[in-house]
């Protein structure tokens, strides 16, 4: 998760308060950091992605419009008798239910509607027009596609259904990712299975139908395991070949749009599913390769940032476990940075609020060493749902990054504005600077400035790209044209 974040060149005013004020601030922050799921809560948009897709329910097909397979039993029985066999494609989208737990039933229903439309739209493209699309139950999240007879009048042969399942998995994963990226902090996980049953006049048709569904469900679980093994092998190859790229997104002073630093972001092999950092790190977590991938990304980020001159600082996202990497400590680290002309005082080690709290003792011990050397510390994703405020204060971070989920539509959200005020109060107490992440609209920009936030990053200013914008006049001019000057 190597990424670097910009630097703030001025400290915000230090405003001491009494104990009662501190308690009040803590209550405000805690209550806002853990808001209840609400259908009206807008989804987070991920600044680190190139696209943002939000549901527009009017364009959807309602999930209730798709019949359950039990309602279509007669039609499915007819397919079995006519074709003397029955083939099934099984699509399990049940893991998307995390969205319902996080954002409420209305948002989840809208996502299911989008997924339903994607699956229905496959007919005539990835599947045949005459295939019968059903669900496990009304408003269900498991889709059962009973396949019509092959055009060439031939039965399904060896490998046909497996090949179809793989193709559908690739097709849907990319498109469902676009649908769910505003909600999930990881890639969507689909289970794709298949089954084939032969007509047997001794066995009741209903039982044959239930058997093919059961077989397809088992295959979906097996295919999931097979996919995990395949993805692990691909990731191992990526790590061995060091086939990752670093791109940089500037962090700006939002008052005058001057660049004050850069965040380095990792991308996998171009044109592949692994280009997405979420795909990379999800697979690394599943495959127990998180340490290996994170240290590679960190090293590549530092190497690629070697031409970044002072006074710009480099923010490096890292994991608690990789902070203890022996090659990133002591004399090896000093020699490595010296060879890159990077002074430790220009580097900020960044960790998410969640990981900092979950691995607090480990992180605090390691941070003491790095701060003694001259590194700065940043806590990312403030406001993402974790509220270990006392621990955050004890870390004494130099920077707090306001989570992009909370920046989104802050101009229309009273709760988010109050939360940001609370974080600003916390920042003043620990003498930290605040950076707003994921700024995409002028309205968000103006609201952040009104609230006292000086530094930010997001698509409104620049998208991640190779190299540094301030060193590329043409690119800098193009990005400058993207920036909208706030109303005075």
Describe this structure in words.
With 488 residues, the chain is α/β, with parallel strands linked by helices. It is built from 17 helices and 12 strands. Strands 5-6-7-8-9-10-11-12 form an 8-stranded mixed beta barrel. The two termini are 38 Å apart.
What can be said about this structure in brief?
The chain is α/β, with parallel strands linked by helices and 488 residues long.
The CATH superfamily of the largest domain bears the name EAL domain
Which residues form runs of ≥5 with pLDDT under 50? 1-60, 483-488
CATH class of the largest domain: Alpha Beta
Trace the largest sheet across and list its strands.
5-6-7-8-9-10-11-12
Strand coverage percent: 15-25%
Overall pLDDT: 78
- The helix fraction, in percent, is 40-55%
The major β-sheet equals: 8 strands, mixed, barrel
Question: Helix/strand-derived class?
Answer: alpha/beta
In terms of topology, how is this protein built?
Layout (H helix, E strand, L loop, with lengths): L18 H15 L39 H11 L1 E8 L5 H6 L1 H17 L10 E4 L6 E6 L12 H21 L10 E8 L6 H37 L3 E9 L4 E10 L9 H10 L3 H15 L8 E5 L2 H4 L6 H10 L7 E6 H6 L1 H14 L2 E7 L6 H7 L3 E4 L1 H4 L6 H17 L2 E5 L4 H10 L3 E3 L15 H10 L6
Parallel strand pairs: 6-7, 7-8, 8-9, 9-10, 10-11, 11-12
Antiparallel strand pairs: 1-3, 1-4, 2-3, 5-6, 5-12
Helix pairs in contact: 1-15, 4-5, 6-7, 7-8
Which tags fit this structure?
488 residues, 15% strand, Alpha-Beta Plaits, 12 strands, 4-stranded antiparallel sheet, alpha/beta, TIM Barrel, 17 helices
């Amino acid at each position: 998760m190597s990424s670097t974040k910009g630097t703030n060149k001025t400290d915000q005013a230090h405003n001491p308060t009494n104990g009662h004020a501190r308690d009040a601030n803590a209550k405000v922050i805690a209550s806002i950091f853990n808001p209840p799921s609400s259908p009206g809560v807008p989804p987070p948009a991920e600044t680190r992605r190139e696209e943002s897709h939000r549901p527009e329910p009017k364009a959807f097909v309602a999930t209730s419009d798709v019949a359950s397979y039990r309602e279509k039993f007669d039609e499915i029985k007819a397919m079995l008798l006519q074709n003397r066999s029955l083939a099934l494609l099984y699509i399990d989208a049940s893991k998307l239910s995390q969205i319902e737990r996080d954002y409420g039933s209305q948002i989840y229903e809208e996502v299911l509607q989008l997924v339903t439309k994607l699956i229905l739209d496959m007919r005539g493209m990835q599947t045949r027009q005459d295939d019968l699309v059903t669900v496990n139950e009304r408003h269900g999240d498991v889709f059962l596609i009973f396949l019509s007879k092959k055009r060439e009048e031939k039965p399904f042969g060896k490998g046909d259904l497996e090949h179809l399942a793989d193709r559908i998995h690739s097709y849907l994963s990319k498109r469902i990712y676009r649908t769910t990226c505003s909600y999930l902090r990881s890639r969507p996980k689909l289970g794709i299975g298949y089954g084939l049953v032969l007509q047997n006049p001794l066995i009741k048709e209903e039982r044959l139908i239930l058997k093919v569904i059961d077989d397809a469900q088992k295959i979906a679980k097996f295919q999931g395991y097979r996919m995990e093994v395949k993805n692990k092998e691909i990731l191992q190859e990526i790590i061995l070949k060091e086939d990752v790229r670093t791109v940089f997104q500037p962090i700006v002073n939002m008052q005058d749009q001057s660049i004050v630093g850069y965040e380095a972001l990792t991308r996998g092999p171009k044109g592949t599913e692994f280009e997405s950092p979420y795909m990379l790190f999800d697979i690394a977590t599943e495959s127990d390769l998180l340490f290996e991938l994170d240290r590679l990304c960190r090293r590549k980020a530092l190497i690629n940032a070697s031409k970044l001159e002072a006074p710009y600082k480099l923010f490096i996202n890292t994991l608690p476990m990789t902070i203890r990497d022996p090659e990133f400590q002591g004399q090896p680290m000093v020699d490595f940075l010296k060879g890159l002309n990077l002074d430790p005082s220009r580097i900020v080690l960044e960790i998410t609020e969640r990981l900092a709290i979950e691995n607090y003792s480990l992180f605090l011990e390691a941070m003491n060493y790095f701060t003694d050397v001259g590194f700065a510390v940043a806590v990312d994703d403030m406001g993402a749902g974790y509220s270990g405020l006392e621990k955050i204060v004890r870390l004494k971070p130099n920077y707090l990054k306001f989570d992009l989920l909370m920046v989104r539509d802050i101009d229309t959200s009273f709760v988010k504005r109050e939360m940001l005020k609370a974080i600003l109060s916390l920042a003043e107490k620990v003498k930290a600077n605040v950076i707003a992440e994921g700024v995409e609209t002028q309205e968000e920009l103006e609201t952040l400035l009104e609230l006292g936030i000086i530094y930010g990053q997001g698509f409104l200013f620049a998208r991640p790209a190779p190299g540094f914008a301030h060193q590329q006049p043409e690119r800098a001019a193009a990005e400058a044209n993207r920036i909208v000057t706030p109303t005075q």
